[in-house]
Amino acid sequence: MTPLLEARAISKTFAVGDGELTVLHEINLKVQAGEMLAIVGASGSGKSTLLKILGTLDTPSGGELLFNGESFSRKNDRELARFRNSALGFIFQFHHLMPEFSALENVMMPALIAGRNKAGIEPAARELLARVELDHRRDHRVAELSGGEQQRTALARALIMQPALLLADEPTGNLDSRAGNLVFDLLHGMCRERSLATVMVTHNMDLARRMDHCCTLKDGVLLAGREEKD
Ligand SMILES: Nc1ncnc2c1ncn2[C@@H]1O[C@H](COP(=O)(O)OP(=O)(O)OP(=O)(O)O)[C@@H](O)[C@H]1O
Ligand SMILES: [Mg+2]
């Protein structure tokens, strides 16, 4: 079966001062439709760098990225932006919502950017906010929401365009365990309901264990399985 997402020998080298720093060494990775993959690894091991490349937010120094078997190497910035908007959902450690807009407006934003009309998209946005248990906070400005509520809003926003792949970089990293578990339970349940593929970077081994697969990034190489911490 053609993978939804495939990374072939992805490398990333940064220029640092007079020298260079290679963070990723020929990473190979396949994500099938509906599959949930966790990536763990020490701080600085390159997890965010890899996730950004998988999300076409950064370009690799070498290797190739394919989505449904189609290569990205020849796509221009505009095509990539359109692809990200329609096929990918993102959640980061810090929510990147617009604080002065309401939760509902934030959830609708990717659809408005894609040119959909507000009346058409609002019912789906309301439904998503209800699903993340925020119908009572719909009209609050994001700046007035708690950290957990902000991440649940970010989750609803990530799903409004019905993406095929959700990329999450430590979505619970900034929350206490109770709020973090609720965000993860919702993320997990909603991805399963929608057969949505997910790549999630996390430091939380309990959450990594609940995904279908787990890989560890170490010394720029992706290893199958978890490195047990003692
Ligand atoms: N734009 C850049 N220029 C130079 N070096 C960079 C750049 N971005 C990241 N790095 C370096 O690459 C390495 C990996 O960074 P990255 O943010 O991917 O790590 P991480 O695994 O996500 O860490 P954390 O768990 O702390 O979030 C780090 O050593 C970092 O300093
Ligand atoms: Mg990171």
TrEMBL record:
GO terms for cellular component: membrane protein complex; plasma membrane. Its EC number is 3.6.3.-. It comes from the Bacteria. GO terms for molecular function: ATP binding; ATP hydrolysis activity; transmembrane transporter activity. CDD domains: ABC_MJ0796_LolCDE_FtsE (cd03255). Keywords: ATP-binding, Hydrolase, Lipoprotein, Nucleotide-binding, Transport. It is an enzyme of class 3 (hydrolase). The keyword ATP-binding applies. InterPro entries: AAA+_ATPase, ABC_transporter-like_ATP-bd, ABC_transpr_LolD-like, MacB-like_ATP-bd, P-loop_NTPase. Residues 5-230 form the ABC transporter domain. Belongs to the ABC transporter superfamily. Macrolide exporter (TC 3.A.1.122) family. This is Lipoprotein-releasing system ATP-binding protein. It comes from Desulfoprunum benzoelyticum.
